[in-house]
Batch of 2 targets.
Target 1
Amino acid sequence: MAGMLWLVSCKDEPVEASNVPSFDALKTTNLLGQWQFRSYTDGKPFKYDVSMEIKIEDGKPTINGRSSVNFYFIEPEIDESKKTIKIPAVGSTKIAGTMDATSFEMTYYERLKRVERYDFVDKNTLVIYLSSPANEALYFDKK
């Protein structure tokens, strides 16, 4: 009898659906995933391995990645219905690098802070547009 009472008392509490992330919805979001930085609008090649991963952590979007020298992390504001993205600040590790690599990295971070919206050329190519200069963009390929 005591065993039966214990089993009944261990019943799971109901969980509100609004507090549970929809993993089906996350799987269909093209923005989420790992991306490899390809180029700026000018298309000029560069010699650094730059990447980012967009994911949901604790119910909020996060961006983490590797720039030319350091690892960076961002808590963006993303509106998927409008395809807008705002990056209030870029945090990073403090690893020392060459002057060239550090200069590239600072330029990359400054451009990330001016991000305004995004779009897809196809499901494997992400274009992130900057607020200024008006025609500037960052191109990423899906990993």
Note: Residues 3 and 9 are 10 Å apart (CA to CA).
Target 2
Amino acid sequence: MNRAGLAMTTMISKTERLYAIREIIAAKPITSQGELRRRLRERGINVTQATLSRDMKELGVLWASRADGGKYELPGEEALLPSPTPMMQVLSIVSNESLVVIHTLPGSANIVGEYVDRHKVRDIIGTVAGDNTLLVIPRSTRKTNDVVNILKSLLIKGMEV
């Protein structure tokens, strides 16, 4: 926020924008594109309605009708096919003081883990992949935040490390 109380807008890549949309929809019910645009703006991401519609279509976002109205949902497991790029398979990156967990689309954790392993990041000892969860083990607890930032650059922004 700036002094006037307005959210600052930052330039982000399309991959980062798609990641933010997926993260928002996965976190809590979103009942309109206007609401989704507001949540993106709260993160400093301004997007037109037309761009948001295209992004939602690309992500395969579905409208789920409910008795109480409806909400947007990410495609179900049966509709998800592995993406050609690891960046499009990552749903979230979270950490505590010593470990990093990456949630992926179903069946994609091993692909993302292999991608991370091939980059031979000095501060990462190794990865352990399940079906949709990847555990990343930093070299030390002091390096956990650095590893999270490296992973976000590598897997969300698509930047080489």
Note: The chain has two domains: 14-75, 80-155.
